[in-house]
Amino acid sequence: MDQATMQQTLVQMGERAKYASRALAILPAKAKNDCLLAMAEAIENGAEEIRLANEKDLAAARVSGLSEAKIDRLTLTPSRISGMAEGLRIVAAQEDPVGRVLSRNVRPNGLEITKVSVPFGVIGIIYESRPNVTVDAAGICLKAGNAVILRGGKEAFHSNLVLSQILDRTATACGLPGGIVQLIPWTDRAAVPLMLKLDQYIDLVIPRGGESLIRAVVADATMPVLKHYKGVCHLFVDEACDQERALDIIENAKCQRPGVCNALETLLISRKIAPEFAPKFAERMAKCGVELRGDEEFRKLVPGAVPAEESDWSAEYLALILAVRIVEDTSSAMEHINRYGSHHSDGILSAVPEHIETFLAGVDSAAVYANASTRFTDGGEFGMGAEIGISTDKLHARGPMGADELTTYQYRIRGTGQIR
Amino acid sequence: MDQATMQQTLVQMGERAKYASRALAILPAKAKNDCLLAMAEAIENGAEEIRLANEKDLAAARVSGLSEAKIDRLTLTPSRISGMAEGLRIVAAQEDPVGRVLSRNVRPNGLEITKVSVPFGVIGIIYESRPNVTVDAAGICLKAGNAVILRGGKEAFHSNLVLSQILDRTATACGLPGGIVQLIPWTDRAAVPLMLKLDQYIDLVIPRGGESLIRAVVADATMPVLKHYKGVCHLFVDEACDQERALDIIENAKCQRPGVCNALETLLISRKIAPEFAPKFAERMAKCGVELRGDEEFRKLVPGAVPAEESDWSAEYLALILAVRIVEDTSSAMEHINRYGSHHSDGILSAVPEHIETFLAGVDSAAVYANASTRFTDGGEFGMGAEIGISTDKLHARGPMGADELTTYQYRIRGTGQIR
């Protein structure tokens, strides 16, 4: 397809989405939830249609020699299909994120100023692999009153297309304008930069995937982007702390699921307890099969550790590797984290309340922990319900993002003829 | 100065600001307020130093033939100097925007998750003319716990430099690290693109000035930008409303200060009352010296009006010109506003509660009004205290931005050994 035709189609999609978003913005919560429930049913009733489309993707994946792991993520089993439907029902049951009164203020002149949460309008989601993102993302966007334009990975194209069509025609059947859920209908790579020029129609883009995808989106986007770079998470073992508990937390943060963004990547140990703690810690990590990369001081205590290089302090291993450094105290731990970290999730393991409070206020990260595993940085664990991602940005949303974070706000001012 | 030296100096400024910002982040409210009060005193005590620097700028301005209006804006009279000091005292007296508990949640596993407002870190402000912005912007940034890197207009360079130095050395005298307030120490245009590459140090940039300045900043910035494009503000005169009051509101919104972003630019009139209302309205506007540019239907009622062209519907005149269109009803008014407006400030003049509520919820603007002048979109009028600008963005801050909007948030999670 030539660029001009593609661009024209994208502009039409943008216009449809914008138009639909205005209808969504004034839709009562019950109507949105009824629509989400109808979508859940439609996904279940469409299981056969979905499986046929998914078969096409799987056949192509086998021909192109996709890895078994990727083929598994691509496969829509009956239980995964009902899982998507169930996800929509959970979103439907959540509190409405739109229309929350964030503040209210009557001015001396009688003007009543109410700050109210409202939808963004149109959200673009760019994602890589699993087709369930199509349904999850559309559901949470609809909950927050937004129309969505989706761009999924090419491996899941047929599955994504059928899913988005089922969702959009259900919305239409519920009386909404068409264009609430639209998938970019080509796998052509050129579509993404064109989509990212639609700032007249798309209010916000959320890329979900690896760092290179995200950097490409940020470079090309003309609209704001909410993004998640890497998670280089730290724990600091303070001079006074329950060392056995610290070992359990470290093991959990490093090993329970090493491939995720909230897993531990660097451990900092207070110099005062290092001689006692380091060997115990090394023993526990050895049991878990974790490779340690330590600074010189740590390697004196644990001679088997690999020498850490400067690059290790900012590495997101996503594997059973852990960088280890001995530091003077809470202040030097904070300095290391603020300098080398990715401002994602960092914690202190300590029994000293003042150290804990200093650390919590002084570490510039989305989530700061005292005496718990960093693995809790997650919309579900935070009690947010559905999550659209974790933001490492500081503007607008930081940390796990749920439906609330897919709203902006508006000031509604009621007067009786006030003039300046 | 060559680019490389400039860049090196900017990186050093960024590092100083970042370092200083970490000290600011954990500073108690009282210490920040004491520092603001000390700054106010230092500005007053430094009046002579400030006037001497300002004289240099004024001399250069006269040589380069700056307009009288611009020279006036540049001039720091004794009363303007005490005005800047007074501004700092007002900011000091405001509530602390940092450490507000935005939500608190104890999870079933006992984790206590608190969402707390925290400073951004380092804010860059790029502005054009008046030297008082140096003090206002630094004061509000400090109140919100942020270090600031300022880039002022070249006409005010010497005034800005002295003001920023007085502020920064006062901060140091109050025990803070140097680098809380820094001004880019050259007038060279090349400094701005270099500053906008410092995303490692500057968390947020706020440009204040004309549209061309803002577009240039957005194009070059690698960090998030909070910006204000134009204000194409509308009022819609509904079929049922107090027409005399409507005329007063229209006059105020259009004429009280036509050169500002919250002034009225387009009036929409309900078809049902147009034959009665349009002539009265035209008469009032004629008295105020306002040129009317109407659609065909309006011109049948007011033959003297200039024909409006398509470009008039999105024009920000900032002058005594008003575009006028007859529309069917509230829905068509909303459609016009959402399509042609700039999502700044738009209002309905109506006696019908359902029309008002539909309009307030359905118009996609930062501030939506019922029966009041759009001129109230302003930090002071909203009761925010000091204002750093008005955002036409949807991400993070919308409408007037005060010290609260110069904070982000952080999740602080307190546990007792929780693991996943």
Counting DSSP H or I runs of 4 or more residues, the number of helices of chain A is: 14
CATH top level class name of the largest domain in chain A: Alpha Beta
CATH topology heading of the largest domain in chain A = Aldehyde Dehydrogenase, Chain A, domain 1
Specify the biggest β-sheet of chain A: 7 strands, parallel
- Percent of residues in beta strands of chain A: 15-25%
For the record, what is the CATH homologous superfamily label of the largest domain in chain A? Aldehyde Dehydrogenase, Chain A, domain 1
Poorly predicted runs of chain A are: none
Tell me which oligomeric state these chains represent. Answer: homodimer
Mean pLDDT of chain A: 95
In short:
The first copy, chain A, is α/β, with parallel strands linked by helices and 420 residues long. Chain A is 43% helix and 21% strand.
Commentary on this structure:
The structure is a homodimer of 420-residue chains. With 420 residues, chain A is α/β, with parallel strands linked by helices. Chain A has two domains: 237 residues, Aldehyde Dehydrogenase, Chain A, domain 1 (3-Layer(aba) Sandwich), CATH 3.40.605; 144 residues, Aldehyde Dehydrogenase, Chain A, domain 2 (3-Layer(aba) Sandwich). Chain A contains 14 helices and 16 strands. In chain A, the strands form four sheets. The first copy, chain A, has a seven-stranded parallel beta sheet with strand order 10-9-11-8-7-12-13, with helices on both faces. In chain A, strands 5-4-3-6 form a four-stranded parallel beta sheet, sandwiched between helices. In chain A, α2 crosses α7 and α6 packs parallel to α7. The first copy, chain A, is globular, with a radius of gyration of 24 Å. The interface between A and B is large, with 66 and 65 residues. β13 of chain A pairs parallel with β16 of chain B, so a sheet runs across the interface.
